[in-house]
Amino acid sequence: MKKVVFSALIAMGAVTLSNAQIKLDKVINTASKGVKALSFSNEDAKRLSKEAVDWMDEHNKVANAKSPYTKRLNKLFAKHKNEDGLTLNYKVYLVTDINAFACADGSVRVFSSLMDIMTDDELLAIIGHEIGHVKNEDTKDAIKSAYLKAAALDAASMASSTVQKLNDSQLGTLASAMLDSSHSRKQESQADDYSYEFMKKHGYNVMGAYTAFKKFALLTKEKPTTFQKMMSSHPDSEKRAEAVKKKAKKDGLWNDPGEITLPTKKK
To answer: Which family does the similarity line name (predicted)?
Structure first.
């Protein structure tokens, strides 16, 4: 499996971008008024998110309908395609990165390497968290930030007060920036709360949220250069696990899982 792909055009244009850095700074500075005045609606967020996800679907290996990954995800989430007033769609990327993300248009993408190390209950908790970001409109903030990065090389886009259509190169940059974007710790905590309530509402085992966070803590120690970077904007995984434990005990749902370890084989 490969790592998730962003844009070949980004790599090919690295020298050009480097040589144009001074010009880029000038463009950003002169267009700052336009950026501040940018009109960015929910529909803009959904449209750009769909374009970015479509780009990523095209440039990454997506598990087909016969894949065990797709069958497993469908089994878990088929009944959640319409959840809490949201219309959602799910796919699996066959990549080595350990991640999952959701977008303002309701697209949820789960990486196969994450599925390899998580139980069904843990996946439910993780994707419940991602749904929380969509419901709380955190994904709108993320795509707006990503759009500004993608449009940074285009003076017309930066200076405009409305969202412009992006070309293929900019879509690659948008996709990369969207995955690199981070939510605030408050937003992450609120998404954790949403996930816990999502699990309770549907009668799932809330312990999945606890053990998922414990595994994230282990991954942070084992993969400090990659996974830790992704998790740097999130609250501490051990503290998140303890928050779930506190809620579960209060609700009479706590069941000590014992020592948590990372699996050595695929689930």
So the answer is: Belongs to the peptidase M48 family.
Q: Which residues are catalytic?
A: 130
Residues 180/233, Cβ–Cβ less than 8 Å: no
Q: Collect all residues with Cβ–Cβ distance below 8 Å to 232 and sequence separation of at least 6.
A: 182
Question: Tens digits of per-residue pLDDT, 123-176?
Answer: 999 999 999 999 998 888 777 777 776 665 454 444 444 555 666 777 776 677
Phi-psi region of 85 (alpha: psi -120 to 50; beta: other; left: phi over 0): left
- Nearest by Cα to 196 from 238, 226, 240: 240
- Residue 266 confidence (pLDDT): 55
* Cβ atoms 17, 154 nearer than 8 A: no
Contact 117, 215 (CB under 8 A): yes
CA distance 87 to 232: 30
Q: How far is CA 163 from CA 34, 107, 261, in A?
A: 11, 20, 46
Q: Do the domain assignments include residue 14? A: no
DSSP letter assigned to residue 40: -
φ and ψ of 68, to 5 deg: -60, -30
Q: Give a yes or no: residue 63 inside a domain.
A: yes
Counting every residue written for the chain, the total comes to: 267
Sites in the chain below the pLDDT cut of 50: 6-37, 153, 155-161, 267
**96 in a structural domain:** yes
User: CA nearest 214: which of 101, 75, 119, 138?
Assistant: 119
Alpha carbons 87 and 77: distance in angstroms, whole number: 12
In a domain, 149, yes or no: yes
- Give the torsion through C-alpha atoms of 173, 176, 179, 181, to 10 deg: -60
